[in-house]
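User: Just a sanity check before I run the rest of the batch. Below are the structure tokens for the first item. I only need the designed sequence back.
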């Protein structure tokens, strides 16, 4: 383990992260909201802390090993989540505690969208922009950004990229050089953000709201500048725009890259994960809209269609925007939507959850086992499209699936031990581990009312969900630390 090299990289990345305080400072100057000082203080504190880490080891420039990459990613996301809460705490809004400030920051950077802040409409613009900015940076991953634009780090980019990118297969590069791959992902990410911002603006949002919500839409984060979330705007056009960009952001960015490069829609048609993604959301949308119409939850069919479709896409992609209190919808709908969030977006997207490709592999593996009961000696491959998947990938998916639900069960028990009821505990873990945001019960609207120990447990759940379980769990295995 090259601890000095890791310290150098962590120091550099912290210094880079300190620059995220500059846009909120600019927003504070433009809107004259008087909330600049906390960001100025946070900027210097994080910059100095990063410099003090970097200075003693600035000469240590060696190629990172794979294990070093995992440790850098986990350390940075943890440090970033904690340090990101600094300006929120220094702002002193509603006498916010350290626990709440870290929870809000961790929720933002992991694109979970669970909030403990009530009264968003009255917050200064600088703080509102900062919350949205955290989600946007966390969406594609600051590590990938570092690999793309900071080659002067002098580290092995592939090690960071493999530890950071979501999905069961982490060795695929879109371009020959990993730096170019990371840049390609960020160009697409930036392009979607700009297009989303302009669409919101044309549809009637103020430019500030359009920019802020484009950050959280493309990042599949779910933070809003208003307590009523997207329901504040009461606009069908805005909801439809959000649906389109949430769907696009939940798709594997490698598919977007291939489609743009080939100037063709065929990559979408050929991709089995994309087809499954659309199929799942379509089926759940039909069920939801039909049940809303059957129970006359809304006054008109058009309203049932728009509200049902919006909530399904938002929850299904783990974005977490709301235009209605879905947790109070009739019958099985709230639990159905929460279950869909476990599937989440496609691998290689900004979405959370288990990922569509893993669910697809689990289904196909289950079907293979049924066929083996009939034909015990048959050699049956599990295929995605026309490609047979390696057995090690299938084994990794089963391992991930087992770990995911074992951790879910453990965290639910821990939350119940802190005093939360079963519904709240289950939905809070699901919402945070899936990086979704809104839950059921006491966390249907926000997480402000739950106790501090529960919030720290959920911070860990957010981090596990964002880093896809194994990236963090591997650090506690004895084999990881052996020379």
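Assistant: Here's the designed sequence for the first item:
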């Amino acid at each position: 383990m090259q601890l000095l090299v890791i310290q150098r990289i962590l120091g550099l990345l912290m210094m880079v992260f300190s620059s995220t305080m500059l846009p909120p400072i600019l927003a504070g100057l433009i809107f004259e909201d008087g909330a600049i000082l906390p960001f100025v203080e946070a900027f210097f504190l994080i910059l100095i802390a990063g410099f003090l880490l970097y200075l003693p080891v600035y000469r240590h420039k060696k190629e990172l090993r794979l294990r070093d990459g995992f440790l850098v990613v986990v350390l940075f996301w943890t440090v970033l989540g904690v340090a990101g809460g600094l300006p929120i705490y220094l702002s002193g809004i509603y006498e916010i505690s350290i626990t709440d400030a870290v929870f809000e920051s961790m929720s933002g950077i992991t694109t979970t969208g669970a909030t403990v802040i009530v009264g968003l409409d009255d917050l200064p613009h600088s703080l509102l922009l900062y919350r949205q900015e955290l989600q946007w940076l966390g969406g594609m991953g600051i590590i990938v950004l570092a690999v793309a634009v900071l080659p002067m780090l002098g580290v092995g980019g592939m090690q960071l990229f493999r530890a950071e990118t979501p999905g069961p297969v982490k060795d695929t590069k879109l371009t020959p050089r990993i730096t170019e791959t990371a840049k390609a992902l960020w160009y697409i990410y930036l392009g979607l953000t700009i297009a989303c911002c302009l669409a919101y603006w044309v549809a009637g949002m103020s430019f500030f709201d359009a920019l802020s919500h484009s950050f959280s839409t493309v990042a599949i984060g779910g933070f809003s500048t208003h307590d009523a979330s997207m329901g504040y705007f009461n606009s069908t056009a805005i909801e439809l725009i959000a649906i389109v960009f949430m769907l696009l952001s939940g798709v594997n960015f490698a598919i977007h890259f291939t489609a743009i490069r080939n100037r063709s829609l065929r990559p979408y048609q050929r991709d089995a994960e994309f087809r499954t993604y659309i199929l799942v959301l379509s089926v759940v949308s039909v069920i939801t809209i039909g049940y809303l119409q059957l129970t006359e939850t809304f006054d008109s069919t058009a309203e049932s269609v728009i509200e049902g479709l919006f909530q399904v896409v938002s929850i299904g992609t783990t974005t977490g925007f709301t235009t209605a209190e879905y947790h109070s919808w009739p019958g099985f709908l709230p639990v159905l939507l929460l279950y869909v969030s476990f599937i989440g977006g496609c691998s290689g997207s900004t979405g959370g959850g288990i990922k569509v490709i893993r669910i697809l592999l689990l289904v196909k593996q289950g079907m293979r086992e049924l066929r083996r009961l009939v034909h015990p000696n048959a050699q049956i491959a599990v295929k995605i499209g026309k490609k047979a998947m390696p057995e090690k990938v299938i084994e990794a998916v089963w391992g991930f699936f087992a770990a995911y639900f074992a951790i879910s069960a453990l965290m639910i028990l821990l939350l119940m031990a802190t005093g939360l009821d079963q519904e709240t505990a289950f939905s809070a873990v699901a919402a945070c581990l899936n990086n979704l945001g809104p839950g059921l019960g006491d966390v249907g609207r926000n997480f402000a009312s739950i106790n501090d120990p529960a919030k720290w447990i959920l911070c860990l759940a957010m981090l596990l969900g964002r880093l896809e379980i194994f990236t963090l769990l591997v650090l506690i295995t004895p084999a990881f630390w052996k020379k």
